[in-house]
Amino acid sequence: MTDPNCIFCKIASGQIPSACVFQDETAFAFLDIGPLAEGHVLLIPKEHYQTLDQMPPDVAGRLLRRLPVLVKAAAEVAGAEGVNVLQNNGKAASQEVPHVHFHIIPRRAGDAFRFNWPASKYPPGRMEELAKAIREKL
Ligand code: AMP
Ligand code: ZN
Asked: Which of 42, 43, 86, 91 to mutate to test the pocket of ligand 1 (most atoms within 8 A of CB)?
């Protein structure tokens, strides 16, 4: 299923041009138009799902099997020393385009990309409580 108003559906179907690097029956990968680094690739499903939790596991599996080779190719072409794979779900998580996508971002030591990673600590017992609650959802 595609969404006629979705920019990534239009890109995956070829209605909007893109710098495509790969496609098969499930997946489409293309260069991000606003790259965080040279060779910044987006991997998307051809079908429209807003967020990762909405994807059927088999579709997610067929999409994600393409990730390793794309990471390798983007890194080699960019001459990268590392790669970040990012995937934002929902506005609160900085998702601008509501169609599932994986950012593949080639990295070099000392490049301009910075994470804000405000790691905190759990109070005693809270980790176990949360792990149990998540286990019970699966
Ligand atoms: P996010 O904030 O995770 O939703 O990321 C959306 C990404 O889509 C941004 O990095 C944009 O630069 C990228 N983007 C938006 N429109 C296009 C387009 N027409 N072609 C390529 N990338 C796009
Ligand atoms: Zn879409």
From this structure: 42
- Which residues lie closer than 8 Å to 113 by C-beta, 6 or more apart? 36, 37, 84, 105, 107
Supply the CATH number for residue 133's domain: 3.30.428.10
pTM of this structure: 0.97
Reply yes or no on whether 101 is catalytic. yes
**Which domain does 57 fall in, by range?**
7-137
Per-10-residue mean pLDDT of the chain, 138 residues long, equals: 96 98 98 97 98 98 98 98 98 98 97 92 98 98
